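Subject: mismatched residue count in predicted assembly?

I count 628 residues in my input, but I want to confirm that the predicted structure covers every chain. Input:
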Amino acid sequence: MTEQFVVGIDIGGTNTVIGLVDKYARVLDKTCLKTQHYQTVDAYVDELCACILNIIKNVGGEQIKGIGIGAPNGNFHTGAIEHAPNLRWKGLVPLAKLLEERLHLPVLLTNDANAAALGEMVYGAAVNVKDFIFITLGTGLGSGLVVDGKLVYGHDGFAGELGHVILFPDGRLCGCGNRGCLETYCSALGIMQTYFEFAQKHDIALPENKESLEAKYVYDRAIAGDLAALQAFEFTGELLGLALANSVKYTSPEVIFLFGGLSSAGDLLFAPMQKSFEKYLLPLHRGKIKLLKSALEEGKVAILGAASLIWQMK
Amino acid sequence: MTEQFVVGIDIGGTNTVIGLVDKYARVLDKTCLKTQHYQTVDAYVDELCACILNIIKNVGGEQIKGIGIGAPNGNFHTGAIEHAPNLRWKGLVPLAKLLEERLHLPVLLTNDANAAALGEMVYGAAVNVKDFIFITLGTGLGSGLVVDGKLVYGHDGFAGELGHVILFPDGRLCGCGNRGCLETYCSALGIMQTYFEFAQKHDIALPENKESLEAKYVYDRAIAGDLAALQAFEFTGELLGLALANSVKYTSPEVIFLFGGLSSAGDLLFAPMQKSFEKYLLPLHRGKIKLLKSALEEGKVAILGAASLIWQMK
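Triage response: the counts match. Full output below for your records.
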């Protein structure tokens, strides 16, 4: 039987990880290259192809169903990376086309959060869930919407940008240029800023290197009983609960999955989030929609998600 | 050729309108009964069946493809009207099943706004639009989401409740029990209340019968140059523009259609709405997503929309 494997590629600002994936969510082989090392797209694509050929040489090209890629600002419709702020190649990078020309394999590409949502659907806790929302809580807040078993791409490939839903039009400045976007509050950077604000209010001293701290610091402080850190989790959870309750009014998902850094904070985040979520739902939805931590493994999700693009292919 | 016609039924709190519809959006025959006149569901269904049989007798049952129904709190998945606050029959009314048993024709049912969205897709300006949002601005605010050519029902049939997206958690009390829902501001009732508040602030006298006024009054006052009425449209348009920009971040529609009362206010509503919409979009969406008045005829939309349920049927 042919086509037993898929190549899953996770392109990040720093690293590109290439994995050989089977249908049972096993990553059989993995290699890595430095994304920012290559000044031109061509040089990057040359090296990427060399890595792919190397990783598939033991199984043979005829056993490979295709190549799935998760990338910042990846557009499923065009197969291009479009104006990604954290990559050095500007404008449109037609990556799927460039790889197809060189490798003669089907190539599909989407953004990171969409790929992760697909990973949850194919390999994770959403195998039997037709309608769900997948939220990644990282530096920012990413999301993928699944409706009736299909990822929502929208007319131009840029659906599912819940991190940029505006909560406070006069709120915190966001990277997108607007103010008060969800991700300026509910993300690693967001909760750090909230903690600094509460700490200042309570005259709690901050370490000198506060610019280099990570969200884990707020978590550790909360566990240690720091009032500002506890309040920061309370505030973040409440706001996220409201935002997620609002999202139910769009697509009425059965489950909302949370993934990444902040979602590991357990009850510190989930308790206030769950309470506010229930409060702000329509009465007919109360008690019926689950907020769950993703079942995917942190280190593998991007590759598995990217691979899912190909397994899903008709 | 058989199956040239569909029966479209619009169930409202006051009237039930039954129409015979062909594929060219022509309502060939129409009849009406008083929804609230019937104490029991059975008595209502008996009379409804009599009306349907009467309206199809000239073409013959074998020419009827099915019966489509738009109803308050209509659930496509279950075919039932579920806990509709403005109907006298409480709990679940399995209307599709009751009609199928009596008439032996396929019966599909959904809520009013979803039906209108389908009407726009089958008969209106969305014939070639695969991703759009349909907003009805009536007493409240209803909505239907269309993704990749299909209406979004969600896991339980209650997707597309944009009127209950919460803008201000401490805002105006909504019929759903929460506060600050979109429809408490952007609807006929919403703009009336906004007008009263602005009028009070500017010491503008209100007529004694202010409780019985309709939104048309605010429109007439704005045309006459009443400052409070002009500000009420400005405020409503700005808020609606923000809410619609946020909705783009969910499903990235090509067009958002607006329908009903307030959408007829022209530039008074559209100018501030369009401006705020563009402002709050992601930069990559600016100038690319259309806000349009629906192309459907006010008096026919509900019947045509309900009929579309059947034309869409596989």
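Residues 267 and 273 of chain B are 9 Å apart (CA to CA). Marking this ticket as 'not a bug'.
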